[in-house]
Specification:
The protein has helices at about 15-30, 50-60, 75-80, 95-100, 120-130, 135-145; strands at about 5-10, 35, 65-70, 90, 110. It is of the alpha/beta class. It has a 5-stranded parallel sheet with strand order 2-1-3-5-4, with helices on both faces.
């Protein structure tokens, strides 16, 4: 179970806005502290403007995890992965989400809003936040990233 001591940074673009709003409800229900970097509406915006702040705060350790959402998930994933201590994973189902945490110690979940259901996105967020990194042989690999 996710501890309330965690802080989750979240951001999206216009394509991910509705999913972001619903994911915030999941975080609130789980009593997870979060920082919402926007946007605050579904007007057209540039995804880097909202993914960079998530990447920056996870990079310096002021947020434990990040969640970024855009239409394909690719743009926000590329953006957050510009930061040395960020391991952003583009996931589109529960299995990939679990593996991103257990094997890759991903700390930012990248969601493709135009390609998965809202229900799947909610499930992925829960799995991402509740799954621990396995370490062991996987730690050696992650350290080489």
């Amino acid at each position: 179970m996710v501890s309330s001591k965690y802080i989750v940074a979240i951001g999206s673009d216009h394509a991910g806005f509705e999913y972001k709003q619903q994911i915030l409800k999941v975080l609130e229900k789980k009593k997870v502290n979060y920082i919402d970097y926007g946007p605050n509406n579904n007007f057209s915006v540039d995804y880097p403007d909202f993914a960079h702040p998530v990447g920056k705060i996870v990079n310096v350790g002021k947020a434990t995890f990040g969640i970024v959402i855009c239409g394909s998930g690719n743009g926000v994933c590329m953006t957050v992965n510009k930061y040395k201590n960020v391991r952003g994973a583009l996931c589109w189902n529960k299995e990939l989400t679990k593996l991103a945490r257990t094997h890759n110690d991903a700390n930012v979940l990248c969601i493709p809003a135009r390609f998965i259901s809202l229900s799947m996105a909610r499930s992925m967020v829960k799995i991402f936040l509740e799954t621990e990194f396995e370490g062991g042989r996987h730690a050696n690999r992650v350290n080489k990233i």
